[in-house]
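User: Predict structure, ligand nicotinamide-adenine-dinucleotide.
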Amino acid sequence: FPQPFSGKVALVTGAAGNIGLATANRLATMGADLVLLDLDPEKLEQARAALGEHDVRIHVHTCDVADSAQVHEVIDRVAAETGQIDFLFNNAGYQGAFAPVQDYPEADFTRVMHINVCGAFHVLKHVSRHMVARRYGRIVNTASMAGVQGPPNMAAYGASKFAIIGLTEVAAKDLAPYNIRVNAISPAFMGPGMMWDRQVALQARAGSQYFSSNPDEVARQMIGSIPMRRYGNIEEIPGVVAFLFGDDSSYMTGVNLPISGG
Ligand code: NAD
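Assistant: Predicted complex:
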């Protein structure tokens, strides 16, 4: 791999999760130093170990993105440690419950909003303060196709991801004068593994006219709704993020790129 990102520092939230880790791995392959943030300290150490083969600096910080004071403190510490934050992959997220809106648990709605919307905002705000000072930054927010077309039984998640796309458009305008580009990606059904299984099982259990109550049939229904007739692989995401960080997307900001099989 050529190393176009050597000399750059990339901060990844939700870095211990599937998409975060796969993307951190790609950015390290391209030469970027990494700052990994996640709520889960154990998974974070496993992520650091998994990335150990790369010849780049790796900083890790446990951080709850929903806690604004903690985000402020951690981001300032990171900026002091690294002297620069060039790329932000603002990716931490939580899928929430599956239930029709009339039954959707209120506490879970609030939790999803705190993590997905307030959390993404806190990180975006505090990282962009440092980017504004350096007049350079590339930000990618993880939205979802659930933020483009509201899926059934996902009131909180759908609303939160619509919010992320809105936040991306606003931030792109606010930060354009400072040479900071802000874009979003929207994965749809990704598999195989826990997220796919959870989604299929919970949509089956939630009961609706849109999906069968049999998980195997739900899987077939979901795949049948995708023009490419397969779910996406996690490894089909990092290259899109790298494209949005890199110079090939130099005239793109405020855009949401679906990664959805059509
Ligand atoms: P994942 O559960 O593997 O990873 C999410 C990570 O975020 C976890 O490591 C978790 O510990 C961390 N996290 C959760 N709450 C946090 C908090 N408050 N503060 C800090 N970290 C926190 O899931 P993933 O699929 O890798 O998800 C990454 C992003 O992609 C999420 O925003 C998710 O909504 C989005 N997404 C995923 C899919 C999919 O099918 N996997 C599809 C569309 C969008």
